[in-house]
Specification:
5 helices
Length: about 150
Amino acid sequence: MAHPRAGVRRAGIGVRAGGPAVVATAAWAFGSGVGSGEDVHLPAPQGMVALVAANVFVLVFALSWGVVVWVLLGEMFPNRIRAAALSVAAAAQWIATWLVTVSFPRLSEWNLPLTYLGYAIFAALSFAFVTRFVRETKGRRLKEMG
């Protein structure tokens, strides 16, 4: 978990910077699969790289968006609309999670390396978005947010 004094923006940028590289590494590893149908496997080095990349991604996510997004949502809306806005934002977050969950099996059947490459692109876009649009929250009062 990010240190409370680190600030939402810094925590989101600092840890999340590794996300695109980790997912792109997994895409590379999955691209080396050999075989077809139910008999697909990864060569020895790529199999280990895919395993490590998947676990590092879980760690990176847990230290960044997994926690920070809920803090960010609580801080980004003015007090007068915070409850309603947070409800809508949380619903949008769960819908997006559901879309990723239901689309992954089809996308991975179509092309697993390109699916992971697409996720890497979106991770890079999230990094760029946070860098450009999310304001630092460190040292600011809740009333000043939003």
